[in-house]
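testing teh design pipeline on a random one, pls ignore if ur not involved
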């Protein structure tokens, strides 16, 4: 196995963040257990850590909502020191109300940076109770979930998604408003075709890397197959990339009148569907029981953690909110062993400290009641 590059959070400081006026914690690399009653702030701490990656964090909240509600005229800020590949790394982020910007500011080692750049430094994976509906809700949510995981491996992927989305929206606007500017439509459709092929190739490559880890036997956890289906995938399977792109552009052109009535686009990378199959019972994830779905999701998250750690040699930080309590004792023990074996920093929350007892020797316990 290759040498995994350590990356873990050492100190975390919160200011005006959710229910915390201020919080300052220092932790080791070991698994961190935050146990305490409902509403004490466990998920808020994980949310803060999730904001050291690009995007809106594990709650997908608007920036303004995060600010401690009884504080006026001030923003919220979070700051963390990491050990990153044997070097010190400091990241700060937050919402600064003294500027007109509604975007969150990001500073890396004191220098102004961007959200996108965070992905070059820190990889964060999480599972939360809000994700329980991942296999039941529409395909868009699932696609966004996988695309977000993929960005950990290929930061360029988010640029392709952005460019695709822009071209799709522009074309939809023209068609909706009946502006049949042939030249401009052709440019947008070429962009959509080009980006669809790049996005789909990335997705297929990622899934082929992930699949080996999804099939690995982890005692008590289901084995999974993930596939990607859609018109673009069929075009890619049947043609070279150049021909697939040309065909796709032709189809987009043919679909103009249909799309102007129906809105959006009938074909393209935004129509692909990620299908998750539970190999143990040969059932699609959507028909599996709630408990089985939670286990499937955990298998997926852990497979991504192992892929990052072992193939890409970067240690992700793992946030598991309310996950452990739902596992039976055997699965819990297997999960703890996996976490310790991988040596990645993991943050685990729950209301019942008892379920974390097997980690008593190896874990760092935080009791928020005592703060
Ligand atoms: N912007 C905000 N300002 C002040 N308080 C907030 C804000 N947003 C959320 N809270 C409060 O933070 C508290 C802690 O929330 P959190 O979800 O972290 O609790 P928890 O410990 O994870 O609880 P549970 O065990 O129920 O999941 C809640 O009481 C919530 O009302
Ligand atoms: Mg919570």
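output:
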């Amino acid at each position: 196995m290759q040498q995994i590059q350590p990356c873990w959070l050492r100190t975390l400081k919160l200011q005006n963040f959710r229910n915390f006026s201020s919080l300052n914690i220092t932790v080791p690399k070991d698994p961190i257990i935050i146990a305490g009653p409902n509403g004490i702030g466990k998920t808020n701490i994980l949310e803060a850590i999730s904001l050291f990656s690009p995007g809106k964090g594990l709650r997908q909240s608007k920036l303004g909502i995060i600010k401690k509600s009884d504080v006026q005229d001030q923003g919220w800020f979070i700051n963390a020191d990491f050990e990153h590949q044997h070097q010190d790394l400091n990241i700060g982020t937050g919402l600064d109300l003294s500027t007109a910007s509604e975007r969150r500011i990001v500073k890396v080692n004191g220098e102004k940076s961007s959200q996108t750049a965070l992905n070059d430094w820190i990889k964060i994976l999480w599972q939360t109770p809000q994700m329980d509906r991942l296999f039941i809700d529409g395909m868009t949510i699932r696609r966004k979930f996988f695309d977000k995981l993929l960005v950990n491996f290929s930061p360029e992927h988010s640029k392709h998604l952005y460019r695709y989305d822009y071209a799709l929206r522009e074309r939809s606007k023209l068609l909706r408003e009946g502006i049949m500017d042939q030249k401009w439509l052709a440019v947008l459709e070429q962009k959509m075709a080009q980006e669809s092929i790049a996005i789909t190739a990335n997705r297929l490559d990622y899934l082929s890397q992930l699949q080996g880890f999804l099939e690995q036997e982890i005692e008590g956890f289901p084995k999974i197959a993930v596939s990607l289906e859609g018109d673009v995938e069929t075009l890619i399977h049947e043609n070279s990339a150049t021909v697939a792109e040309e065909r796709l552009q032709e189809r987009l052109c043919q679909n103009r009148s249909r799309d102007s009535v129906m809105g959006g686009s009938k074909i393209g990378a935004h129509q692909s569907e990620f299908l998750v199959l539970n190999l143990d019972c040969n059932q699609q994830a959507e028909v599996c029981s709630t408990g089985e779905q939670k286990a499937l999701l955990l298998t997926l998250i852990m497979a991504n953690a192992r892929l990052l750690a072992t193939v890409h040699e970067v240690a992700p930080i793992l946030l598991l909110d309310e996950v452990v309590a739902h596992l039976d004792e055997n699965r819990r023990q297997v999960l703890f062993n996996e976490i310790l074996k991988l040596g990645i920093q993991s943050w685990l929350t729950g209301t019942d400290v008892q379920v974390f007892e097997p980690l008593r020797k190896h874990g760092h316990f935080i009791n928020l009641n005592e703060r």
